[in-house]
Amino acid sequence: MDIDWAALGQVFGVSLVATVALVGVFTLGIVGGSARTADGGTGTLARVGSYAAYAVCAGAVALGIYTIAA
Amino acid sequence: MEHFTLLIGIVIVTALVFDFTNGFHDTANAMATTISTGAMKPKAAVTMSAILNLVGAFLSIEVATTISKGIIDETAGIRPEVIFAGLVGAILWNLLTWLGGIPSSSSMALIGGLIGATVASVGIGAVDGDAVLSKILIPAFVAPVVAGLAAFLATKLTYRAARNADPEKTSRGYRTGQITSAALVSLAHGTNDAQKTMGVMTLALISGGVIAGDADPPLWVIASAGIAIALGTYLGGWRIIRTMGRGLTDIHPPQGFAAQTSSAVTILASSHLGFSLSTTQVCSGSVMGSGYGRKGGVVRWNTAYRMFAAWGLTIPAAGLVAALAALLAVQGDWGVTVVAVLFVAASAAIWAASRRTVVDHTNVNDDEPGTSAEPGDRGAGDGDSGVMTAAVQAVSPPPAGAQRGDSPSDDDPNAAERRTPSAV
User: Fold this and answer.
1) How far apart are CA B307 and CA B400, in angstroms?
2) Given A20, A27, A67, which is nearest B268 (Cβ)?
3) Vertex B264, ends B167 and B95: CA angle to 5°?
4) Taking CA atoms, which of A65, A67, B70, B329 is between 20 and 30 Å from B392?
């Protein structure tokens, strides 16, 4: 019997952590981008945070494409 | 190309047909939730997926060379007839599961077909039982669990994080995220699955002596495999899309995003870390996980059980058909001809059966018969059997009673009562 438990465990761990992290970060981006201050404008901090979150996700997508092509 | 015989030509064409069925069978993986949440229009979604599958096919030949070079060493003398028979088994199983609208793994069908054909022509000793367990059975259990759990947690998280946000404003973001994840799944699918066909085509060319044993796939092989899978994807297996996008659970934009991201991450992680998981099984798991992640979400287990049954049957069924085909095909030219004729006839019959109830881009988002939450629609559940052939009934054992019992209105006091007598 030759089951690669280490690879299996890695796949389990990486998939779980990366999925939850990415979805979490992207959700912060969405929430930050849609947040409104009392006067109706978008808060600078929220907007910057939102862009930062999207940038992280874009990086993850680039990594994904790299993984596919490699 | 003096060795390019008619038989090799037939094998190449059959491999491309398999590639085509692989494409339309697996459109659902990337695009089912994208279509059902309305993130993209059905036609736009399959077009994008098709283009990315085509692009993906050109990105790498690593998997293809593993297949063509890895197998030829062990089974020196593998014959084109055997590959042909294996492909026939895989294609027929793909068509049958498509007719039933069941998401099942095309790769597993291909493996099952090749195993069956090999056993019939060489003997049972040719199959490595350990390899079947470690490379097929365990991943088949692992894939939906991993992806489902990830999608479940991610769905919970995103609903919680965005609970104070305006759904009107967030849904655009969710759609963008979902389309991006779906694009990655499509690209990965083109790379992985088109390469499997390339590997088989190259194997046939090598076994016929057309190209050298250590040759890489020729460019025309790569191009034709990419085009075949893209065409299949574009035509879209709408029946399977409907099952995955509507049949298993009701998907809202945040769930679609979480499910699709979980699928993309799990597929990429598994292929990168050397523990290959079936795209179909990963995506089905994600959809189900995200179904439970939303408050009040339900998973329609009758549809899920039908899908699980099909997964269990994929290898034996494709293998059995392939074995019978192999027994005929190795008899010589007349045997190959008989297999080819029967194969075309069976495919035509399945296609004809599918025309009785057409599912296409216009009605893909309608409720699947028998899964509607409306009690008044109960009769439609029985009507379900009308659209399936007897053969599909055999592989998909949901009795109408189980369908009722597991339908969303479980709070119906009569449901439990009705379930008991007719349960499997």
Assistant:
1) 16
2) A67
3) 105
4) B329
Name the minimum distance, in Å, from the CA of B66 to any CA of chain A: 15
Give yes or no: residues B389 and B254 share one domain: no
How many angstroms away from the CA of A45 is the closest CA of chain B?
A: 16
Helix, strand and coil content of chain B, in percent to the nearest 5, comes to 75, 0, 25
Residue B379 has pLDDT above 60, yes or no: no
Domain containing B44: what range? Answer: 6-368
Query: B275 in a domain, yes or no?
Result: yes
B180-203 tens-digit pLDDT: 999 999 998 888 888 888 988 888
Give chain B's mean pLDDT: 80
Q: Do A27 and B162 touch (CB under 8 A)?
A: yes
A24 and chain B in contact, CB less than 8 A: yes
Best of A30, A56, A65 to substitute, by most chain B Cβ atoms within 10 angstroms, is: A30
List of chain B residues whose C-beta atoms are within 8 Å of the C-beta of residue A12: 142, 146
B352 and B384: one domain? no
The position carrying tokens 């592989």 is B395
- Judge if ipTM > 0.90: no
Confidence category of residue B234, pLDDT binned at 50, 70, 90: very high
- Contact between residue B69 and residue B214 where contact means Cβ atoms under 8 Å apart: yes
Q: How far is CA B48 from the centre of its chain?
A: 18
The full set of domain ranges for chain A reads 19-69
CB contact under 8 A, A57 and B188: no
Angle in degrees, 0-180, between the axes of helices B6-36 and B253-272, rounded to the nearest 10: 140
**Rounded CA separation B128/B137 (Å):** 13
Whether residue A23 and residue B191 make contact (CB cut-off 8 A), yes or no, is: no
Choose the final residue of a domain: B340, B368, B396: B368
| Partner-chain residue, chosen from A16, A29, A64, that has the shortest CB–CB distance to B149 | A16
Rounded-to-integer distance, Cα B245 and Cα B31, Å: 8
DSSP conformation class of B377: G
Contact criterion met (CB < 8 Å) for B266 and A31: no
Residue B307 maps to a domain: yes
